[in-house]
Amino acid sequence: MYAPKNTSVTVSPSGEIVEGSSVTLTCSSEANPPVDKYTWYKKTVTSPKASGQSYNITNITSEDRGEYYCEAQNEYGRLNSSLASVDVQYRPKNTSVSVSPSGEIVEGSSVTLTCSSDANPTLDKYTWYKKTVSSPKASGQSYSITNITSEDSGEYYCDAENKYGRLNSSSVYVDVQYGPKNTSVSVSPSGEIVEGISVTLTCTSDANPPVDKYTWYKKTVTSPKASGQSYNITNITSEDSGEYYCDAENKYGRLNSSSVSVDVQLKQSLVSGVVGITVVVLVLILCLSGFIWFRKKSSQSTSNEGNIRDTQNNGQTDFSPVYDNVSDMVMTSTAAQTADTDDQDDLHYASVHYSSSNEQEEPLYSTVQSSQPQKQEEEVQYAALKFNCPSAAPRLTTRGAEEEPSMLYSTVIPRTKRT
């Protein structure tokens, strides 16, 4: 009689144990009397897993993976078996990414991403991705980014793969911190800015952490105009016209925006009023100028007429003498009888004076004489001429000269033949 000895464990099936399959562990031992009690244990676990010569695990998982042993016992004693390994193979699990350094990541530094996963057999392929980018960024268990920039900010994850499957990790955010970039100013309202309205200037900048200080400046003015992301100008005037810019700052730096022009226009009503007043003033100036010119011309005309009237009344001046050269005189029937047409070769001249004044009392006379001395005078012919003056505009009548002051008399002395 003896206690158990040569206690051992067999595993079935003996090949690869894949997650989800069934596994049977069997305990054997030499003993006399035979073993009457079997107890199953898993290494690192103090409490028994099962009892009986066989231990059957159905739908095995990765958690069942480990080393097992059995305890054989009879009335003379007990004995533990050697360890038997149950190697459950499975696809990747618990895939994750770690970032080094773990603190703040500043633009220009280097960052390393490392992928880890629970898998059996161990992973044989790692692939790195950045969210919003479809193509892979890198391969290998670690992904190193040197001289990191703000464009590298984003979410990253890895894909872990073995022969039983693959699994993506959860994403990790790489937060690259940097000073302000792309600082700019917007103006609201964006259209025409009319005097009297309110205008808001807004400063925007790409920065991480966000900009914590905004300062507003107007060109040609050294001191700041305001602070804060928005600068509001209420009841704007023409004096507010000019170019404005903002300065954006965080703990990593500062950057000025490009300047934006604020052009303040006068109110339309004021412009219309100014234009209307200008037009009225111009019209008044033109009317006044025309009136002054007309008065001046009227004064000059009245003065000239008065001078002419005075001169005519005094009988000192003949107005506008008119000379008429006469050739081939047409003789009256009486003159034709007394003149010898064959010898009439010389020219005759007539001097005619007229006056535009209605107050001319004395008739004007015209004397027509031959150019050669006369020995005798024959019949004297008189001709009465009347001129219509523009100012008086008298009618032509047959009345005597006493009733018509503008009547002209002409004495025609025919030329006689030389003897």
UniProtKB/TrEMBL annotation:
<dbReference type="InterPro" id="IPR007110">
    <property type="entry name" value="Ig-like_dom"/>
</dbReference>
<feature type="domain" description="Ig-like">
    <location>
        <begin position="180"/>
        <end position="261"/>
    </location>
</feature>
<dbReference type="InterPro" id="IPR036179">
    <property type="entry name" value="Ig-like_dom_sf"/>
</dbReference>
<dbReference type="Pfam" id="PF13927">
    <property type="entry name" value="Ig_3"/>
</dbReference>
<dbReference type="InterPro" id="IPR003599">
    <property type="entry name" value="Ig_sub"/>
</dbReference>
<keyword id="KW-0472">Membrane</keyword>
<feature type="domain" description="Ig-like">
    <location>
        <begin position="92"/>
        <end position="177"/>
    </location>
</feature>
<keyword id="KW-1133">Transmembrane helix</keyword>
<feature type="transmembrane region" description="Helical">
    <location>
        <begin position="270"/>
        <end position="294"/>
    </location>
</feature>
<dbReference type="InterPro" id="IPR013783">
    <property type="entry name" value="Ig-like_fold"/>
</dbReference>
<feature type="region of interest" description="Disordered">
    <location>
        <begin position="355"/>
        <end position="379"/>
    </location>
</feature>
<feature type="domain" description="Ig-like">
    <location>
        <begin position="4"/>
        <end position="89"/>
    </location>
</feature>
<dbReference type="InterPro" id="IPR003989">
    <property type="entry name" value="VCAM-1"/>
</dbReference>
<keyword id="KW-0812">Transmembrane</keyword>
<dbReference type="Pfam" id="PF13895">
    <property type="entry name" value="Ig_2"/>
</dbReference>
<dbReference type="GO" id="GO:0016020">
    <property type="term" value="C:membrane"/>
</dbReference>
<dbReference type="GO" id="GO:0098609">
    <property type="term" value="P:cell-cell adhesion"/>
</dbReference>
<feature type="compositionally biased region" description="Polar residues">
    <location>
        <begin position="301"/>
        <end position="319"/>
    </location>
</feature>
<dbReference type="InterPro" id="IPR003598">
    <property type="entry name" value="Ig_sub2"/>
</dbReference>
<protein>
    <recommendedName>
        <fullName>Ig-like domain-containing protein</fullName>
    </recommendedName>
</protein>
<feature type="region of interest" description="Disordered">
    <location>
        <begin position="301"/>
        <end position="323"/>
    </location>
</feature>
